[in-house]
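FYI - complex with flavin-adenine dinucleotide, inputs then prediction.
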Amino acid sequence: MSGPRTIVVGAGVIGAACAWALARAGAQVTLVEAAAAPGQGCSAASFGWLNLSVSGPGDDLELRARALAAARAAPGFADRRGALVWEQAPEATEALFARLRPHDPAARMVAAAEAAALAPELRAPPALAVFAPDEGAVEPTETAALLLAAARASGALGLLQAPVQSLLERSGRVAGVVLGGPDPRQLEADHVVLAAGAASARLLAPLAPEAAAGLGLSPSVLVRVPGGRALSRILCGPELEARATPCGDGVAPGAAIVTAEDPPADAADPAALRAFAERRAEALRDLLHTPFAPRAGAPARALLAQRPMPATRPFAPLDAGVAGLTLACAHPGVIFAPFLAARVAARVAGRAA
Ligand SMILES: Cc1cc2nc3c(=O)[nH]c(=O)nc-3n(C[C@H](O)[C@H](O)[C@H](O)COP(=O)(O)OP(=O)(O)OC[C@H]3O[C@@H](n4cnc5c(N)ncnc54)[C@H](O)[C@@H]3O)c2cc1C
């Protein structure tokens, strides 16, 4: 490898994707991650849905469709189990379909009988739903590990338990990182890619306070509950979204259900968060036939995480205004990771040229 010496900070789904894209583009990549394994930050609490069907008013679905195409070509994004999505009122479901249809030609409207056939686990299939057969979901921790493995196969070095204490500045440009942890030292580089998720703002603030101020956070909760038979696809109704996970429940291997939620106001209180998780498990029992529903008495677990939320969606500007540095921050970050990584790799190559 003779490309630019590039340090990637953070092995969440975004940093791991950047390391992979950079290594494939010929950069000499060293990825440094504070935790003992990749994908342990926000990515570990993510619902991981690769979707176009659920979006906000300001979301650019054309861009998101391009991001999904990039994800399909990256390691760890293969799932296509399909999603069944519906709103309370049929007119709202029709409006959702009208937004989706130009960007997802495979999506179609289904009535109750077909919804029941597609998702036999539902106690009360919706009168009208959107079925998006190409949508899928990943386990982002697993995806981060696969991306890091692919980056290593392309020559990247991955250092775990290597927390960055600060960015190294020399003559007005970022020249590397200062590592703490078991092997404290300075690592020099031609370019640093900052992909530290919720920690990026703290590392960036001393050098680029304005860019750091644009890196917001938004809390969200993933509830995991041991299930019975695996759900057939991703289900998203007006009350909750749910999918099967093969990752077990942290207690025993086997099928479990995950559901992503807005946190309750008292989420900082562990007892309140546990009670919230139990209420969501109850809601799943109302939604699903017994063989698929959360097992009675099995504990529901809630993971509260801070989602990196750039002020400019879906990405923060790659150029934070400091030479030698590229910022890699996006929301929704799983969907956009490979697309953003390709842009990061192009920028690093351009800068080096
Ligand atoms: C409940 C929930 C549901 C979600 N659902 C979806 C969804 O369906 N689809 C979707 O696309 N997105 C979803 N998201 C958002 C998505 O998970 C995030 O956008 C994405 O995981 C962010 O990835 P990241 O790599 O930027 O951050 P992280 O995963 O947090 O990775 C940052 C990494 O940097 C490391 N790090 C931090 N500080 C340092 C340091 N000083 N030195 C070295 N390493 C450091 C951390 O240990 C971590 O591994 C969801 C999030 C949540 C919480």
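Residues 9-15, 32-35, 40-43, 45-49, 140, 163-164, 195-199, 220-222, 260, 305, 307-308, 331-335 surround flavin-adenine dinucleotide (CB under 6 Å). The radius of gyration is 21 Å.
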